[in-house]
Design brief:
8% of the residues lie in helices and 33% in strands. The protein has 2 helices and 7 strands, in the order ββββαββαβ. A hairpin with a 6-residue loop joins β5 and β6.
Length: 159
């Protein structure tokens, strides 16, 4: 996974309150990302491996995402690659107090979208054929991306 907390940059989101310890088997929401139509859910498993699992869940089938969630292992987010360290979430285990799940969320901003110029009628329009040609040439505007990586820190409990 990613480097330990000592090497983490300062996240964009500052969290004041600690997250309450979570019980084994209880699914809990870690974070909602409305622009990606997603929420990150986590759960302590009570097993040695994996001790914690998380999933990115779509919030609504009708939601139109303005950002994309990508696999952190493939994207390898880093500040050097243009990613911003967005959030650091620490979730303690109620059953094993010395163990906690740590979720690191990264955001890669896209260049600000520039609306098309106005036509003769003073309207800003997108034409389907033009957009299809851009897509075929792989020249669509970039959209923001998010990636989340999880690790478990602390000593495992017996059992």
């Amino acid at each position: 996974m990613l480097a330990s907390a000592a090497a983490d940059p300062v996240p964009e989101i500052k969290r004041d309150a600690a997250i309450a310890a979570q019980p084994v088997g209880g699914v809990h929401t870690l974070r909602q990302i409305p622009e990606a139509c997603a929420r990150i859910e986590g759960q302590f498993t009570g097993q040695a491996e994996p001790a914690y699992k998380f999933a990115v869940v779509r919030t609504s089938p009708n939601c139109q995402p303005r950002a994309r969630f990508v696999d952190a292992a493939k994207a390898k987010p880093s500040e050097a690659a243009g990613w911003k360290f967005n959030d650091l979430i620490r979730v303690p285990s109620a059953a094993c107090p010395q163990q906690q799940a740590v979720v690191r969320i990264w955001r890669k901003p896209a260049a600000a979208a520039v609306p098309p110029s106005l036509d003769a009628q003073g309207k800003s329009r997108l034409y389907l054929q033009d957009e299809k040609e851009k897509a075929a040439a792989n020249k669509l505007a970039a959209i923001p991306m998010f990636a989340a990586a999880m690790s478990v820190e602390g000593k495992p409990c017996g059992g």
